[in-house]
UniProtKB/TrEMBL annotation:
Its EC number is 2.8.1.7. Its cofactor is pyridoxal 5'-phosphate. This is cysteine desulfurase. It catalyses: (sulfur carrier)-H + L-cysteine = (sulfur carrier)-SH + L-alanine. Belongs to the class-V pyridoxal-phosphate-dependent aminotransferase family. NifS/IscS subfamily. NCBIfam families: PRK02948.1 (NF002806). Residues 4-364 form the Aminotransferase class V domain.
Length: 380
């Protein structure tokens, strides 16, 4: 049985072209980019070219990109590093209840260090209002960190409007763009954020590499110590093969954004059409057309998420949910709880389907038909 992989929001398969450039880099560019001899200088040239590619993808400067081990480290560095560096200006932070745990746990760590954190609630579509951000700002607010596109329901936040509000305040603005990067166009000259986190493995690049964009002049304390790499902001010898792969994945993703957006919207509509044809009761969590193109989160009343996941897996459909299923117990998705409340049935019967490299309309059709059959069986 061939598995149909519809969990690209969790991680994505590495693109064949990315594997090729990484393999070549591992063969030829084994030098340390910090070494001054010819082999080291060659590695430095490749590193600089990759950094330039990634910086241009969001309209940033070469020196504003800090390579990290992924989105989690980028979020940690942005939130903890900026909070500690700017503590003399205040100790208040604003975030949302929708954030990835890399953000939420960083904020919780800072609370233990004496910082005060405000957690904003979304509407039922998973969107944070600009007015709620404006209303939460205080004279001692030093950081606002709001996710660009949600990894569970695909909700896209009005970052440009939020940035306009924060621009008139001392607070820095950070956005976790891990799920949005490569899926939608992002230009930091347009949204005017101070920091932005990205991860490679969401865009068909390797795991273990990401970057943090930091606007020139932004105060940031390092959270790791060692050498003077990344302009003394992130110690450690750069993972050159992964960085080269990241840059190649970025080139491919940026050049295909429009094409993939149209393709994934077609997939969403096809999936929903089949559910309707099979008379399946369902609800869309988020917005079908205005959310991230590749994320489709659906609630199936009268079912439970664990049974859905197990049965879909048996049928060869690889998907996930916002729930952590461990030993038969289910921890409800914090995102869905924030959107619908902890008594809503949706927090216990929702599945995320996410599309990407290797999927086609036939895969979507098969997955939707099998999902419909499973839902009918579970309800009976």
């Amino acid at each position: 049985m061939n598995t149909i992989y519809l969990d690209h929001a969790a991680t994505s398969p590495i693109h064949p072209q990315v594997i090729e450039v990484m393999t070549e880099a591992m063969k030829l560019e084994y030098g340390n980019p910090s070494s001054i001899h010819a082999i080291g200088r060659s590695a430095r040239r490749v590193l600089d070219e990759s950094r330039t590619t990634l910086a241009k993808s969001i309209g940033a400067k070469f020196s504003e990109i800090i390579f990290t081990s992924g989105g989690t480290e980028a979020d940690n560095l942005a939130i903890i590093g900026s909070a500690m560096a700017n503590r003399d200006k205040g100790n208040h932070i604003i975030t949302t209840k929708l954030e990835h745990h890399a953000v939420l746990h960083s904020c919780q760590y800072l609370e233990k260090q004496g910082f005060d954190v405000t957690y904003l609630s979304p509407d039922e579509h998973g969107v944070i209002s600009v007015e709620s951000v404006r209303g939460a700002l205080r004279s001692d607010t030093i950081l606002v960190t709001i996710m660009y596109g949600n990894n569970e329901v695909g909700a896209i936040q009005p970052m440009k409007d939020i940035a306009a509000v924060v621009a008139n305040h001392q607070a820095l603005l950070h956005t976790d763009a891990v799920q949005a990067f490569g899926a939608i166009q992002i230009d930091i000259t347009d949204i005017q954020v101070d920091m932005l986190s990205v991860s490679s493995h969401k865009i068909n690049g390797p795991k273990g590499i990401g970057f943090l964009y930091v606007r020139t002049g932004t105060k940031l304390l390092p959270v790791s110590f060692g050498g003077e790499q990344e302009l003394k902001r992130r110690a450690g010898t750069e993972n050159l093969p992964a960085i080269v792969g990241f840059a190649e994945a970025c080139r491919i993703a940026i050049n295909s954004i429009t094409e993939r957006k149209e393709q994934y919207l077609t997939y969403k509509k096809r999936f929903v059409e089949i559910l309707k044809h099979e008379n399946i009761e369902y609800y869309i969590n988020g917005n079908l057309e205005t959310g991230l193109p590749h994320v489709l989160n659906i609630s199936f009343p009268g079912t439970d998420v664990e049974s859905l996941l197990v049965n879909l897996d048996i049928e060869g459909i690889a998907v996930s949910s916002g729930s952590a299923c461990t030993a038969g117990s289910i921890e409800p998705s914090h995102v869905l709880v924030a959107m619908f409340g902890n008594k809503s049935e949706r927090i216990r019967n929702s599945i995320r389907f996410s599309f990407g490299l290797g999927n086609d309309i036939e895969h979507i059709t098969i997955a939707a038909e099998k999902t419909a059959a499973i839902v009918k069986r579970l309800r009976n």
